[in-house]
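New to this. Explain these C-alpha cells.
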Amino acid sequence: MQKKYIIATSAAIIVLIAGALTYKVHAEKNSGVAAIVDGEVIPVSELRDVYEKNPQIKTQVSFEDFYNQALDVAVNSKLASRAAAAAKVEETPLYKEKLAEMKDELARQVYVEQRVEERITDEAVKKVYDDYVAKFESEKEVKAKHILVDSEATAKEIIAKLDAKEATFDELALKYSKDQSDLGYFTSKVMVPEFSAAAFAQEKGTYSKQPVKTEFGYHVILVEDIRDTKPLELNAVSEQIKINLSQQAVAEIIKELNDNAKVEKFDLKGKKIEAK
C-alpha cells in the first residue's frame, strides 16, 4: 500500500522540490550531504525542510521514501539552474515576460491567502464544529466480521463448524473467506441492504445461523459490538473544517472584490452581458 502512495505522489514531489528548494553553497553543520554538484553542496537538511513544510506528502510517505525520489529531482533542478545561469537566461525577453506573469500571479495568490487566513480563526472553526455537534443525529452502528464464500453449501458448512465449536470464527475466516474478515464499525446505510438487515437483526456476540445472500455471495456474519454513533472529536475534523472554510472564504473574497468594483462584461459580438 505504501508503494501506491509513493507512486501517486511522485508528480507532487517533483513540483514541490523544483519550486521550493533554494540551494546554499555550504551544508549546515551535522546535517549531512545529499549531493555535490560541481563542488556545490546540497545538504540533506534542505530536502528535509521541503518534506516538513508539505503535510500532504508527510501523511503519505516517510522521509526516507521521499528522499529517494527527491534526490534526483534536486540534483537535476540544480543542474538546470546552473545551465540557465550560464546561458544568461535572466537577461532574455522571454524570461522577463514570464517573471512579470509569475509576480502578478504570486501577488494575487498571496493576497487571497492572507485574506483567507484572517477568516480561518480558532473561533470560526469552533463555531462550525459546535453547529455540527448540535445537528448531529445519532444512529446505531455495529462492529462485525464476516466470512464470504461463493456457495450456500459452504456457508452452511462453516456455520455447522461454529455450532460444533470445531474452530474459531477467525480461523474459519482465514481458511474460507474470499474477502477480508474484519469490517469494523458501520451503520446500516453503508452495506448492501441484505447484509445490513441481517447484521442489525443480530445480538452482540452472535453469528448468523443461516447464510446471508447478497450480490457478492454468501456471508456468515459475526456481530462483535453494537453502539450509538457519536460526533467526531474536534481534533479529528478541524482540518476538514478549515478546508471547507477556506473554500467558502475564497468565494466570499472574490464576490466582495466584484461587488466593490465596476465591472462590465461583453460577449464576442461586443454586446454587453447583463449582470445576473
Summary: Residues 1-30 have pLDDT under 50 and may be disordered. The beta strands are 33-37, 40-43, 140-149, 182-187, 212-214, 217-228, 265-266, 272-273. The first helix runs from residue 2 to 8. The CA atoms of residues 55 and 137 lie 32 Å apart.
